[in-house]
Amino acid sequence: MVKRHWVKRYTELPHASEQLYILQRWDTASKGGPDNDWSVCTTWIVARKKRWYLIDVWRRRVDYPGLKVNAQMLAQKWKAKRILVEDAGAGTSLVQELRSKISGIIAVKPEGDKATRMSVASAQIEAGQVLLPERAPWLPDLEAELFSFPGSRHDDQCDSISQALLNSSGSFMDGLSPQDWDRILAYVRTPTRRRLLGDHDFVPMHRAMH
User: Fold this and answer.
1) Residues 18-57 pLDDT 10s
2) Is 155 exposed, middle or buried (0-12, 13-18, 19+ CB in 10 A)?
3) Strands of the chain, DSSP E
4) Cβ(94)–Cβ(72) below 8 Å
5) Vertex 205 angle, CA 204 and 210, to 5°
6) Separation between Cα atoms, residue 42 and residue 165, nearest integer Å
């Protein structure tokens, strides 16, 4: 479903001015035994021009206390602004317990099955919007799963990736920097634009950015 030649690589992360926020997407297992599924957290830099940089993959079989400890550790380590956790099983409990301790953590309900989600997200990968590192300790395991999906033995990393891509587009407002807001306010405050507001009660904000 995802072709190897679609994936873009990065050797350097985008400049801070290009970065919008850090996003984490959790796919949690219900139990931590060796025969159970993995818990996975992918960490992304969401950047301007619709680019997603995968900067870390955490993948372990842990019990619930271990899951909670690692969720807090990873959120602090990467200073994540958004932490999306699947609203099911251990994920539901995780959000309820950590909401007062981790800023930006929310429960989300995925739509469709895993194959459907990846089929939608794969369009972003094919378009060159998703960047993987040239090298990382976790990269071989990730690629083995990603490039054989849906035939891979495990699919937890793939599901974390697809749900991150589908949930991280956000709204136009989320991507505005302080400089962007200054430009918009200057645009709105001009006499001509005030008359437009009075006539239409609307400002085409995407045009104010140009």
Assistant:
1) 999 999 999 998 655 556 678 999 999 999 999 999 999 9
2) buried
3) 8-10, 19-27, 39-47, 51-60, 82-86, 105-108, 130-133
4) no
5) 105
6) 11
> Which pLDDT band, with edges at 50, 70 and 90, does 206 fall under?
very low
Q: What is the DSSP letter of 99?
A: T
Q: What is the DSSP letter of 192?
A: H
Contacts of 178 (CB under 8 A, 6+ apart): none
Three-state SS for 70-89 is HHHHHHHHHCCCEEEEECCC
Distance CA 68, CA 110 (A): 21
Strands (E), 70-189: 82-86, 105-108, 130-133
**Which sign, positive or negative, has the C-alpha torsion 23, 162, 140, 32?**
positive
DSSP β-bridge partners for residue 69 = none
Question: Which CA distances in Å does 9 have to 125, 139, 173, 203?
Answer: 11, 12, 28, 38
Q: How confident is the model at residue 204 (pLDDT cuts 50, 70, 90)?
A: very low
What is the torsional sign of CA 105, 111, 117, 121?
Answer: negative
| Nearest CA-CA partner of 8 in 126, 131, 127, 134 | 131
